[in-house]
Amino acid sequence: MAEWNIAAALNRVAAKQPEQTAVVTGKNGKYRQWTFDQLLERSNGYAAFLQQKGVKRGDRVMLMVRPSMEFISLSFALFQLGAVVILIDPGMGYTNLLRCIGAVRPEVLVAIPQVQIFSRVFRKPFATVCIRICAGHSFGLLGSSLQTVSVAKDTESVPAKVDRDELAAIIFTTGSTGPPKGVQYNHGTFHSQLGLIKEYYQIGPGDVDQPGFPLFALFATALGATAVIPDMDPTRPAQVDPEKFVRSILDWQVSYSFGSPAIWNVVSLYCLEQGVQLPVQKILMAGAPVSGELIQRVQQILPQSGEIHTPYGATESLPLASITGKEILAETWPQTRLGRGVCVGRPLPGMVVEIIRPCAGVLENWSDAEILPVGEIGEIIAQGAVVTRAYDHNEQETRMAKIYDGKVIRHRMGDMGYLDTQGRLWFCGRKAHRVLSAHGVMYTICCEAPFNEHPAVFRSALVGVGPVHAQLPVLVVELSTPTDEATLFAELRAIAETNPLTEDIATFFVHPGFPVDIRHNAKIFREKLSLWAEKKVQARSCDEQT
Q1: Is residue 303 part of a domain?
Q2: What are the tens digits of pLDDT across the range 25-53?
Q3: Is residue 235 classed exposed, middle or buried when 0-12, 13-18 and 19+ CB atoms within 10 A define those classes?
């Protein structure tokens, strides 16, 4: 019988390689490290302490602790107890943060002192909390302190026997197309994710990971790899200090790393400027479309045997598909530059991708969906073991996102794309970001590609202004170098006229810095840009009238 509790993975790894380094933390070249045996001991000690304080199986526990040994130990301790771990991006802004906390109704708060104080000030969202555990000095006011926990070598704990479908965690989406939603993860989902990552990317004991996203430190240690926690703010990956990020890679001979394209954009420029070669054999970049230019640049700082992967998925279904950087550069990037979308690869083993005709409302039954042929753009649908079942306390969003076919649950990714003759999936943009003009549908990723070729353009975003099916297509650009706007707009208009995908775009604006998501700093908040562009269009119209 399978052991579904994700905490059991740590027990197995610690039994096989107790003295192997599990976690490394540090700053400015001064590090602390813990073995798998020590990680398990710490996790067991925390589990016993939490249980003593009343935390039990099924309790909803909001965990708000910085990326650290403590974060990893506490996560495994909570899984071990069968508690439901709630993970939330603290940088999403007060309004979203408070709304999300209130929506998931936590019963236990395990958090640093600042968050404990925050919860006392904004009481309403935390009204369901009845147990407080402080990860730091509690001063006798902020709950029981973890600093009182003494970890003994003989402290043992057996992971709770859980079912495959038992709730293990609630992880929030980035909120790139609306308010962040809490995604329910069961133990079976984590189990399947671990299996896919291990088998497909060949990651396991002997590997050293430096994750740019904290959750992946859990995957690394559960797979028997060493997790080196980088000295960076995970809510601001685009502002990573490349010298610090690179130093720990070199000091620990990191073999693979998962991170946002925003991280690798900064790090690759630094490495090329400093003449630094990295030992990394695998880089996984995800969170937003990855350009061929960035892949080419990162490839230059890796060993000849090093490989770049760009996994595709979402919080609700991850990973779904993947492609290597070498295949992108050799085969698909030239097509992307022409406006044919971004190739995100073939479905991973056991995963199924289908394309259906876009539907505005709920799809109650799979039989109601119209599957589209190869090459035709439609909604991307995911099916497989890593597809999550529901959003937490959000029945309407669950009904909108899920399609039921007996016991099979399919997820509507909210993305538009198509399959090619080789079975590869091409991403054309978010469904909610389509521009519905009087002349037809315009897909963001496809239409932006030709403009991104301009040397002064760092990135661009197509947005629609006005009523649906009569929207004015507006291209907003973020500059890589200062340039005369009148000259730039004339050149962008010339580019637009050469491509049937973009010939209707005649309105251009320069934005000082695109609003992006907290988690990856790479997904563009096009809704915000659309409102900004609408005001610019209105202002321009007023100026012309006067």
Answers
A1: no
A2: 998 889 999 999 999 999 999 999 999 99
A3: middle
